[in-house]
Design goal:
- It is a single chain.
- This protein is an alpha/beta fold.
- It has helices spanning 8-15, 32-40, 75-81, 98-101, 128-134, 137-147, 153-163, 172-179, 188-204, 206-220, 234-246, 276-281, and strands spanning 22-25, 45-49, 65-68, 87-93, 221-231, 265-267, 289-295.
- It has two domains: 8-99 and 206-295, Rossmann fold; 111-204, Putative methyltransferase TM0872, insert domain (DNA polymerase, domain 1, Orthogonal Bundle).
- Strands 3-2-1-4-5-7-6 form a seven-stranded mixed β-sheet, sandwiched between helices.
- Helix 6 packs antiparallel against helix 7 (153-163), helix 6 crosses helix 9 and helix 10 (206-220) packs parallel to helix 11.
């Protein structure tokens, strides 16, 4: 496995796995979570999704596993196609895998020289190169302000538009060179992480995919089934938290005549984050936030 699974035991506890149940891992990646789920299943079934073809390299030989090479925004369609509705539990480990980060040619990492790519699906037409070099100033402001939560989004957009008149940045290092003077002193790493996050979310439509997935989860889970989601930044976590709380993405609860909240889920326990030992052993787990919900 190329990916050390984050919050592995809390995820398994949250799913409340039943040996004969049907479960879904919508972010197979390196197979860490899926492998543990298969160990706990007996006569059950696991359906795994991943749009990255590299994930196939980690598939175990197991008849109980159905792997679907697709974006998990299509989860409901494929579960219906294969006759797997309803399901007993769904796990989503959002964001990018360690394998993707560590491949310079994928362009995800601020630490390596690589092309401006950032596509999770290599067949996708839109890459970070098109965003950086073809979006107009207002579109770039939107991307950096809302997806990167960067206060100087306007300056970033303006600088990119100005500099690309003479030379188009095509690599991660060239992009960093263009924006270097806008990085707050002493906080350069955080600044570029936010820039790259914004581009990655735009390229992969990550927040739209997450919204579609959460809605579908409420439709395919049986009553009492569990939804387990690990997020890695506030934009994702806010959507997950609000949907669990209110069944919508703004977090405003609606109540019936008797004062009961109208929502498909109820929260199970409190927010879970990695302990100090896990953060030390796996630094990439530091920003992880785990939320668990049960279908009503």
């Amino acid at each position: 496995m190329y990916h050390r699974p984050v919050l592995l035991q809390p995820c398994m506890d949250g799913l409340n796995l039943q040996p004969g149940g049907t479960y879904v891992d919508v972010t197979f990646g390196g197979g860490g979570h899926s492998s543990r789920m298969l160990e706990l299943l007996e006569g059950g079934k696991l359906v795994a999704f991943d749009q990255d073809p590299d994930a196939r390299n980690n598939l175990p030989q197991d008849d109980r596993l159905l792997f679907i090479h697709q974006n998990f925004r299509y989860m409901k369609n494929f579960l219906k196609l294969h006759g797997n509705i309803p399901v007993d539990g769904i796990l989503a480990d959002l964001g990018i895998s360690s394998w993707q980060i560590d491949q310079p040619e994928r362009g995800f990492s601020t630490r390596f020289q690589g092309p401006l790519d950032m596509r999770m699906d290599k067949q996708s037409a839109l890459s970070a190169k098109e965003v950086v070099n073809e979006y107009d100033e207002e579109e770039l402001v939107r991307v950096f302000k809302f997806y990167g939560e960067l206060r100087n989004a306007r300056k970033i957009a303006r600088e990119l538009v100005f500099k690309r008149k003479n030379e188009l940045p095509e690599t991660t290092e060239e992009l960093k060179g263009v924006l270097q003077k806008l990085a707050p002193r002493g906080k350069e790493n955080k600044f570029f992480a936010q820039v790259f996050q914004a581009l990655r979310i735009e390229v992969n439509h990550e927040l739209d995919v997450l919204k579609e997935f959460l809605k579908q989860s409420a439709e395919v889970l049986r009553p009492g089934g569990r939804l387990v989601v690990i997020s890695y930044h506030s934009l994702e976590d806010r959507l997950v938290k609000n949907f669990i709380k209110a069944g919508n993405f703004n977090g405003e609860q609606e109540k019936d005549f008797f004062g009961n909240v109208i929502a498909p889920f109820k929260a199970v326990g409190k927010l879970i984050v990695p302990d100090e030992q896990e953060q030390e052993e796996n630094p990439r787990s530091r920003s992880a936030k785990l939320r668990i919900a049960e279908k009503i």
